[in-house]
Design brief:
Elements: H1 10-29, E1 30-32, H2 52-73, H3 81-107, E2 109-110, E3 113-116, H4 118-135, H5 144-169, H6 177-194, H7 211-233, H8 240-267, H9 275-280, H10 284-288, H11 299-327, H12 336-357, H13 360-363, H14 367-370, H15 381-389, H16 401-430
Parallel strand pairs: 1-3
Antiparallel strand pairs: 2-3
Length: about 475
């Protein structure tokens, strides 16, 4: 007899436990940061100097990407639109709540409290984006209970990785190509490796799209495309660094979009465009410029990176994804390895090249702000000279360009290694019984977890199974 997939007890119980824990932790450890604390305001405080007005536009833009962009993008399957959008909504909401606590402990914890401000929310959104990217590898093959458990486990692993890389390895990764895209891709691949389903290797009857679902998915792509410059520039230094990040992201996205259309037609035997290419490959440039997005790489380099990332992503969808499924037991449902893994590698290598080529001739004294770890150490006479040119410049580690490049390489291997270990562990947890995992024949089917409307097109699709346990109160 098949295990019950009813959510009637499982989902409310899990949510109740999570909410009680989060509420208790918020009550005990979360307070306001200086910009949100009324006690620290006085008649000399200018409200317009509040960090809200600097950071909230980026927070709002990334919110649109997470809840609308990702949500619509994941609704590309004809019989799985409810699940793609709604499970994204559910998982994202919890992941941000949880990340505020976990990331706050590593980044904003002092005097026994996590000091909450808009910048915390932006950091939590990035952790949420990691979870949603990984979600793409197991789309249609997991229950909402499993996805919440996945977010519960992935956020701490990501936060620890981020903390070690930024605090101890110390790298440049403004757009998150290493810490967000590579981590998310390999965590998701490790999870789906453990959750391997042999019967899905040759496709599934319900793994199909429709005219309407493809249009909805392209809308998600357009939201992600439009707001990606905010994603890449949100945590860069304000001013010229952030300005370059916006320019490079737009140029990279633009070149990858043109390339995607050309390659889609060229690789199609009938010379037609493929909607899956438009939905995914057009975004590759946003990832490929990420590691060097705030550097003086030149607009031409950003354009070239968009073309390179798009080409790698397109070829990955055509040839690498089927190979991974048949030979390595990795069923990457949404091709996250192509859009985030391959492009993340290209971006990381481009960042290393940009670091090796960086010089004061190109950057001026501001080089030691962008590459903070290359700034002279405390007590170095050169530091005093630079501080006269750039007031507030902090002492660095005195690294050479070659040393910083080696630390970047170390961060790549460390991030991928921890992501794979965390993903394997999470996958084994998700295989535990009583997490409402869908049976093979009911993957990619909204009818399993939703009350679907009367016009739900289930022609030729059997109804979801009703186990005796499903009828119990």
């Amino acid at each position: 007899m098949k295990q019950s997939t009813s959510l009637r007890v499982r989902l409310p119980t899990l949510v109740l436990v999570l909410e009680v824990v989060i509420l208790a932790l918020y009550a005990g450890f979360v307070t306001y940061d200086d910009n949100a604390n009324a006690k620290l305001q006085n008649n000399e405080t200018n409200p317009m100097d509040n960090s809200l007005y600097r950071d909230y536009p980026f927070f709002a833009d990334v919110q649109v990407m997470i809840f609308i962009g990702f949500g619509c993008l994941l609704a590309f399957l004809r019989l799985y639109g409810f699940s793609g959008m709604v499970f994204n909504f559910l998982t994202a909401t919890f992941a941000i709540q949880w990340a505020i606590l976990v990331q706050g402990y590593f980044q904003f914890y002092s005097d026994g409290k996590i000091h909450l401000g808009v910048i915390n929310l932006i950091n939590a959104e990035f952790a949420c984006a990691v979870v949603l990217i990984s979600f793409g590898a197991v789309l249609g093959k997991t229950s909402p209970v499993q996805l919440l458990v996945m977010a519960l486990l992935e956020v701490p692993v990501f936060s620890i990785t981020e903390w070690v890389v930024l605090k101890y390895i110390k790298i440049n990764d403004a757009g998150g190509s290493i810490l967000i895209h590579l981590f998310a891709a390999y965590f998701g691949l490790a999870v789906t490796f453990v959750l391997y389903r042999p019967s899905l290797n040759d496709g599934h009857a319900k793994e199909i799209t429709s005219y309407q679902s493809d249009i909805l998915s392209v809308m998600g792509t357009l939201f992600l495309w439009v707001f990606w410059p905010s994603f890449n520039s949100a945590l860069t230094f304000k001013g010229d660094d952030q300005h370059r990040a916006v320019l490079h992201t737009f140029i990279g996205l633009s070149s990858s979009t043109l390339t995607a259309f050309a390659l889609s037609a060229a690789l199609n035997k009938r010379g037609k465009l493929t909607m899956a290419d438009v939905q995914n490959v057009t975004l590759a440039g946003g990832v490929t410029v990420g590691a060097s997005v705030d550097m003086m790489i030149s607009p031409a380099a950003a354009y070239a990176l968009g073309v390179m990332g798009c080409t790698a992503c397109m070829l990955g969808y055509r040839y690498l994804t089927p190979f991974l499924a048949r030979r390595l037991r990795i069923q990457d449902q949404c091709g996250i390895h192509n859009l985030h893994g391959l492009t993340g590698f290209i971006s990381s290598l481009a960042g290393i090249c940009a670091i090796l080529l960086a010089s004061e001739e190109t950057y001026g004294p501001s080089m030691y702000q962008i590459f903070a770890h290359r700034a002279p150490v405390e007590g170095d006479p050169k530091l005093l000279e630079l501080q006269q040119l750039i007031p507030g410049l902090k002492p660095g580690l005195g690294r050479t360009a070659q040393e910083q490049a080696l630390y970047q390489v170390a961060a790549i291997f460390f991030t991928i290694g921890l992501a794979i270990l965390g993903g394997l562990f999470t996958g084994f947890v998700l295989k535990l019984p009583n997490l409402a995992s869908p049976p093979d024949e009911y993957c990619f089917d909204d009818d399993l977890f939703f009350d679907v409307p009367s016009d739900f097109d289930s022609t030729g699709v059997p109804k979801a199974p009703i186990c005796p346990a499903d009828t119990k109160v």
